[in-house]
Write a structure and sequence with these properties.
The structure is a homodimer. Chain A has about 190 residues and is mainly α. Chain A has a domain of about 130 residues: Tetracycline Repressor, domain 2 (Orthogonal Bundle). Chain A has 9 helices and no strands. The longest helix of chain A is centred in the middle third of the chain and has 27 residues. Chain A is elongated and about 65 Å long. The model of chain A has no long low-confidence stretch (mean pLDDT about 95). Chains A and B meet through helix 6, helix 7, helix 8 and helix 9 of A and helix 6, helix 7, helix 8 and helix 9 of B.
Chain lengths: ~190, ~190
């Protein structure tokens, strides 16, 4: 990896582990094994580097989610696959956790990729659910926009519960709960 | 308010606004209008003061939630009242946000009240839902433990979505979504 790449990857790790406020330029330089002069040669400063890191993480998250959203199967199959995908639960969501960082939320440039990623997830999930409703897989009473927001919220909140408990159990329970609730909305097959 | 009280209240505000890592002893002293010597006379340090602040916030949150959980009405009425209660959505949950603070999660004494509060919420909601099931208000397929975790996760995740969007809309949608899903589990009245 070249120097700029090492800096971005180190920043991604530190943002996930320690948040933005808790990550110093010095810590980034140490993890990347890069001197201060070299860091400021490649990036204007911590916000610039953090923006590159957050964008990279957001792109990867979208690509992974899109694999599940555009897979074959019913809407519920695809939402289930998305919810049950293996995750590093105790580390939390590298994008969602940034919402608790006042310095990220207070900087429109840094907040933008966080906002866009979570909005995109809700939008794509709403499309998948709307498709399921149109195909007659899901009850017509189901509101795709609202349930999409619920699904993304359950994931983000599940991480919060898991971190508090230092256990994946409440995360798994929250996912099982929403899948159980969703199951009651699956239309009976027309025989 | 006496000095110790002013210090605890200032710490509560700062923890909510800036998190633990982002709150310095100096900032607490300034907000409380208290000198450094006086602060260390009342509290051993920032962790000690933060513990008092987190405990106070946790107690208040439980008392407020318990009002809804023990109110009259069906289980769904009570869960609905809890979910729709007025909240300072864009500020987030003063307890949940601490889970994103590695210094809080890394200190067993500080993590304990966060863990206990969220576990208590899940437990009480599971009791309310189990009661609704026993009374025949809810379908027997509904898993009270799992749905309780879902409800708490939707709230915590709703805050995350609202902060990212700088709007209460996704929070309100996530709540509407889970209430819509729950509605399909209400048993038909026996006529």
């Amino acid at each position: 990896m070249d120097t700029a790449e090492r800096l971005v990857e180190s920043t991604r790790e530190l943002l996930w582990e320690r948040g933005y406020t808790g990550t110093s330029p010095k810590a980034i330089q140490q993890r990347a094994g890069v001197g201060q002069g070299s860091m400021y040669h490649h990036f204007a400063g911590k916000p610039d580097l953090a923006l590159a890191a957050i964008r990279r993480t957001a792109e990867e998250m979208r690509a992974l989610a899109e694999e599940e959203f555009s897979a074959p199967g019913t809407a519920v199959d695809r939402v289930t696959a998305y919810l049950l995908r293996e995750r590093d639960v105790l580390k939390g969501c590298p994008i969602g956790r940034l919402t608790q960082d006042p310095d990220v939320m207070g900087d429109p440039a840094l907040r933008a990729p966080v906002d866009e990623t979570l909005a995109w997830l809700r939008e794509r999930l709403a499309e998948v659910l709307a498709e399921g409703r149109e195909r007659g897989e899901l009850n017509t009473v189901l509101d795709p926009q609202a349930v999409a927001a619920t699904v993304v919220a359950v994931l983000q909140g599940g991480y919060v519960l898991a971190r508090a408990a230092d256990s994946v159990q409440p995360f798994d329970q929250a996912i099982a709960g929403v899948l159980g609730l969703l199951a009651a909305h699956i239309s009976m097959p027309r025989t």
